[in-house]
Amino acid sequence: MSDKILNWGLLSTANINRALITPLRASKRNKLLAVGSRKQASAEEYAREWKIPRAHGNYEALINDPEIDVIYNSLPNHLHAEWSIKALRAGKHVLCEKPFALSLAEADAMISASRKTGKVLAEAFMYRHHPQTLKVKEMVDSGMLGELQAVKGVFTFTLKRENDIRSKKETGGGSIWDVGCYPISFARTIINLEPTEVFGWQIMGAGGADVSFFGQIRFPNEVYSQFDSGFQSPFRAQVEIIGSKGTLNIPEPFKPGRDEKIYLTRAERTETIKIPGRELYIGEVEDMADAILLGKAPRISLADSRNNTAVILALIKSARTGKPVRL
User: Which of 87, 114, 148, 195 has the largest count of CB atoms under 10 Å?
Assistant: First the structure.
């Protein structure tokens, strides 16, 4: 089965699709075959623009296309669970855009559908597959920073478009779901433990979702994480990892490019470490191929995705109640 070419279908015509089109076409094991939209005309227009062979005028037609092997679910957040489950039950493997789910009930239903159908389901956190992330994890695990103490992260930008779905509560909007999920995931990945307690604050927008979120996370062994996310601040994306013997600064933690630099400071001396990278989204595409064709475990496990959802939900509850929330 390792010589099979996987046919992919894009579930929606969302802008994020563009990030996957190039790596799908560059891969020897994957092929972009179809796109699905709510209307035939929009599907055909998108297919012509991006030179996609097939256009389906509704989502059901795409997931029921017998030649499609993998569905990329790039629908709005509140539709991730519903359509991932439908695609799995239709016999498709699914790469679901982040955030994985908006509730633990949704996450559990998705995981159950994957297990019952035997199909691969993975969350599309592209940064997790990049050489920079793997190198940072290796450095921390090696003890270069000493005993790990804290991970601080930030991801903000100014959302200028009015009535954007990312600002609406009913569509799963909010900065914590859209960009805050990144520093939360990064901290959990680096610390390699699950939080025990969180505390959050939020600034709410007109759409009923947060436009800024500020969070603190306590891990076992007196390790902590702090982050903020938002739609009303200038673009900021950075992670600082603090240990007893040094710090590591990552200027482009969530969307690293082909060549990046990180900065290791120990004994008041800063060393620049260059990391040869690669196209950002190719990793998640090849990870799916490894899981489907070779039977390898996806780098981002379903338990990992469920736990990230649980931390976000706990932070939102804390911000709503004004009290710490234990996990």
Answer: 87
